Amino acid sequence: INVPSFKYVRKWLNDNIPQDSTTCIIHNDWRFDNVILDPKHPTEVIGVLDWEMATLGDPLMDLGSALAYWVEPTDNMIFRSTRRQPTHLKGMFSRKEVVDYYLQKTGLEPQNWTFYEVFGVFRLAVIAQQIYYRYYHKQTRNPAFKDFWIVIHALHIRALKLIAQQKLQESEFAQQSLQKIQGILRR
């Protein structure tokens, strides 16, 4: 089957599991099509559907998983063409704005937000792989699943980019710190 192995992403996730996290009941499938909004106040959630995957866990796992489905206007064509939620519309928060708002409201301070974001993308890729596997082996016939291998590759690239961006930021921070230390030592 023409899908990437995600071996590097799995290893990175395993090596970067946050040590300190909060535990609570998490929905485990948090996204727009699982909430009911008040018709008179469309920014108020009045119901949450599909609790069958709920469990105890880190609340940031729910946020990371939800943002894997979050498509922004600047995302590539693959994500824009497969989106299932209205997150690309004018006035909607960006993924960064969602994270900032959530962290401000909850008071949570993740050591490594990238872990949760990469985990969400990885989780969505696993779901897409399961669907594509069933299509490939003729266990389902929905033609919408025919090109899921493309989405899986795009999710793999997105996960790798998130990891690379974090490594670049860490590298830049290390360089700046080294320059400061060298400056102090020259005095």
From TrEMBL:
GO MF assignments? transferase activity
The cross-references to InterPro entries, in alphabetical order and at most eight, read: ACAD10-like, ACAD10_11_N, Aminoglycoside_PTrfase, Kinase-like_dom_sf
Spell out where the chain crosses the membrane. none
**Aminoglycoside phosphotransferase domain residues:** 9-77
> Which UniProt keywords are listed?
Transferase
Protein name in UniProt: Phosphotransferase family protein
Against PANTHER family, the record matches this protein to: HAD FAMILY PHOSPHATASE, HYDROLASE, PUTATIVE (AFU_ORTHOLOGUE AFUA_1G12880)-RELATED
Tell me one Pfam family matched here.
APH
Tell me which Gene3D superfamilies the record gives.
Answer: 3.90.1200.10
Organism equals Acinetobacter baumannii
